[in-house]
Amino acid sequence: MAAAYGVDVQRWAALFDGLMDTVGSRFARPEPRRRVRDFVAGLLVQAYRITSSVLVKLGEADLGWLAADRAAAVAGGDPVLAGAATVSVGQALRALGSDRLALVATVAAVHRVAPASGMVHGALLLQAALAAAGGGDAHRAEELTDRAAGVAARVAGDDPHRTGFGPVAVELARVVAAVELGDARAAVGRHEQAVRRQAWRRLPAEYRAAYLVDAARAYLQAGDLGGAGRALVDADGVAPAEVRCRPAARTVIAEIARAHPVPAGVARLATVVGLTR
């Protein structure tokens, strides 16, 4: 299966590279051609980032990294576009357990992307913070998250690179960082504050559901199986695919399903995903 995915990634590369050449060749003057190529490059980066995100969610982090790396390659000399691609690189490397490499890559991109780039700059800081937390560096994680919070307080308007960055993203990242650091008490406390905010309800359904799986991990660390079960059931109600199709979510479901008695709703989820009959 991995080999088949690898062929698909290469075909995507050939297809989009050809598209840039074909569209650009329709313009005789260099300046219009450059604008078209930049526009198509932006679309290509976004396509590779989406591909990377899906692969990571499906447990194919190595292929997710390949797609993210391709996004970074086609971004060319545009530091903001390359920064957006590096957000995906960081996510894939963290999923592979390579937190140190993720930290190095995202911090390097932070230095290349001007703070004025706003959401991309902030998203890179959050990925760097999560990588630091995954590596057990609580001080670095807090420092990077605080910097991201400062950026979030200043940004407003559109999110052309679809980073999802903003004040609520910073708050949720603090929860995930606490989970990575094993500070279940802090994670649960921050989570319960974050989901009371109006901004939480405005997040895309897939974003909320994916985050709730991390919240379930926090409750599990704290020994609160009921809270973990409620978070999973809520995630399933918001975006079922984020729970039923992700290996990471199945792992959490399996851990909770071993409890006696099994929290309400989790037994059904365990059956739905094929863990029990």
Features of this protein?
15 helices, globular, 2 domains, mainly alpha, about 280 residues, Serine Threonine Protein Phosphatase 5, Tetratricopeptide repeat, disordered N terminus
CATH class categorisation of the largest domain: Mainly Alpha
DSSP helix fraction: over 70%
For CATH, the homologous superfamily of the largest domain is named as Tetratricopeptide repeat domain
The arrangement of helices and strands along the chain is: HHHHHHHHHHHHHHH
CATH architectural arrangement of the largest domain: Alpha Horseshoe
Separation of the first and last Cα atoms: 27 Å
Which geometry do the CA atoms define?
globular
Sheet/helix structural class: mainly alpha
The largest sheet is: none
Uncertain regions spanning at least 5 consecutive residues: 1-7
The domain count comes to: 2
Q: What is the count of DSSP helices, taking H or I runs of 4+ residues? A: 15
Taking Cα atoms only, what radius of gyration do you get, to the nearest Å?
Answer: 20 Å
Instruction: Please state the average pLDDT score.
Output: 88
User: Roughly what fraction of the amino acids lie in strands?
Assistant: under 5%
CATH topology type of the largest domain = Serine Threonine Protein Phosphatase 5, Tetratricopeptide repeat
